């Protein structure tokens, strides 16, 4: 094994509430810590929480990792984040179950939370698509459609709809929304003519569906990572400084999980299925015959999303697993409290539910 892979790695994941750090030495976890995230007031500097988490490891192991301007060169710092609520995206395509689905897989594989999807064959008339796009406030828009040398007029019609929508980003409305075009490469110049100077930070990449029977998701995913780093995360306090400390670009937390699972499956030569249940979303990852996929069930989780679990399963299917002393009204009240007070210490009753 190379010396690089056997070196020291400091992995940091920043969520809305907690900043977690793990130190890996010689392929073994030798230190772990957790500190409150410091993006919000009064601190307004994410690096403070990162430094606090690292110092806990330093204290526990009696070592020095941090420097005045980050971490020592002998330690490779890798960072992921979902502190701003994750990566919010919308996608467009020509046919929903062809180019649209390829764009969805590219976005989900990059760790995105899909707000909405638009295609030429969905049932909404143009004015409703325009209204929905204006209201969406995404972080990034991924535009697909047409195989290489294939559909062109439908793609350009969608470009006109996007132009008329004048979509603004979720944060930093004075900035242009990142728009990644990953459709028919033969009409890139025409798409640029429609969207290039109309309030969008337009980037052209290879087609996510160059042939009807072949996908090419890598370039779009890489461009999403770049846009996330360059246009999205910089709006959170302290991330510009943090980016100078890291050895690789900061990526969405879900993307980091996917990368680790895919790497594990490739090294072990196995297929795998993994489920990550969060507070408001549930992610399902799979690697099958070397192909990675991620699907997302938004609104299903163990704090903010616990009410939707009850709605989907039915209250009777929750009560059947609880002691008979639990009344339906009490269970509903407990679940409601878990939704509106997700960050308070969990009670014994909540733990049972």
Explain what the structure shows.
With 353 residues, the chain is an alpha/beta fold. The protein folds into three domains: 1-83 and 236-249, Nucleotidyltransferase, domain 5 (2-Layer Sandwich), CATH 3.30.420.40; 87-234, Response regulator (Rossmann fold); 306-352, no CATH class. The protein is 37% helix and 25% strand. It has helices at residues 46-61, 96-109, 126-136, 153-165, 188-195, 218-232, 239-245, 253-268, 306-313, 315-319, 328-340, 348-352; strands spanning 8-14, 18-25, 28-36, 66-67, 70-71, 75-81, 87-93, 112-119, 140-143, 177-181, 200-204, 251-252, 272-277, 281-288, 291-298. The chain is globular, with a radius of gyration of 22 Å. The chain starts with 7 loop residues before the first strand and ends with a helix. The model has no long low-confidence stretch (mean pLDDT 90).
Give a short account of the largest sheet: 5 strands, mixed
CATH homologous superfamily placement of the largest domain: Response regulator
As a whole number of angstroms, the C-alpha radius of gyration is 22 Å
Percentage of residues in DSSP E strands: 15-25%
Going across the biggest sheet, name each strand in turn. Answer: 3-2-1-6-12
- CATH architecture annotation of the largest domain: 3-Layer(aba) Sandwich
CATH class of the largest domain: Alpha Beta
Class by SSE composition: alpha/beta
Gist?
The strands form four sheets. A five-stranded mixed β-sheet has the order 3-2-1-6-12. Strands 8-7-9-10-11 form a five-stranded parallel β-sheet, sandwiched between helices. It has a three-stranded antiparallel β-sheet with strand order 13-14-15.
